[in-house]
Design the sequence.
C-alpha cells in the first residue's frame, strides 16, 4: 500500500493536504491490515486507505480486488458472489461506492486535456456516410 499520498484530514491544521515527508505523519497502529497515522500538529488520525476505493470495506483486500475486477469485466453479481464467497447484497453495496470513486478519479485526472487528435469513428460513420452507401429507406429519409 502506497502511503506517500496520506495527509492530515484536519482542515484547520497547517499541514493539511501536504503529502510525503512534509505531512509529518507518525505511525500509530494498524487497522484491518492497513497502517494508521497521526498528524504531529493537527492530532488527526489517518488511515492509509482513506481516499481509496477500499476505504471502509471489511472484506480482505485481495478478495475485494479480484471480485471488483470480475465485476468490471462483466461477470454477473451472483456468479461473482459464488466465486469469492460473498453475498450479492455486499457486492451491490460496493457498486455505488466504486462508481463514485471512479468518477472522482476521472474528474481529477481527466481535466484540462490538450488533445492533438481525437478518434471519432462512430461520428464518421454517422455524419459522413456516402449517398451511394445508403439503403433505400435511408435514401427516402435523407431527401
Sequence:
Amino acid at each position: 500500500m502506497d502511503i506517500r499520498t496520506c495527509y492530515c484530514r484536519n482542515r484547520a491544521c497547517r499541514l493539511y493536504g501536504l503529502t510525503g515527508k512534509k505531512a509529518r505523519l507518525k505511525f500509530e497502529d494498524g487497522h484491518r491490515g492497513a497502517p494508521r497515522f497521526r498528524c504531529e500538529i493537527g492530532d488527526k488520525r489517518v488511515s492509509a486507505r482513506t481516499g481509496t476505493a477500499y476505504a471502509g470495506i471489511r472484506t480482505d483486500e485481495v478478495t475485494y480486488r479480484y471480485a471488483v475486477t470480475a465485476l468490471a469485466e462483466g461477470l454477473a453479481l451472483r456468479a461473482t458472489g459464488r466465486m469469492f464467497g460473498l453475498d450479492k447484497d455486499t457486492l451491490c453495496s460496493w457498486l455505488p461506492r466504486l462508481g463514485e470513486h471512479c468518477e472522482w478519479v476521472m474528474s481529477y485526472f481527466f481535466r484540462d486535456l490538450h488533445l492533438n487528435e481525437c478518434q471519432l469513428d462512430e461520428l464518421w460513420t454517422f455524419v459522413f456516410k456516402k449517398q451511394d452507401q445508403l439503403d433505400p429507406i435511408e435514401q427516402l429519409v435523407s431527401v
Observations:
- The chain has a mean pLDDT of 81.
- The chain is about 40% helix and 10% strand.
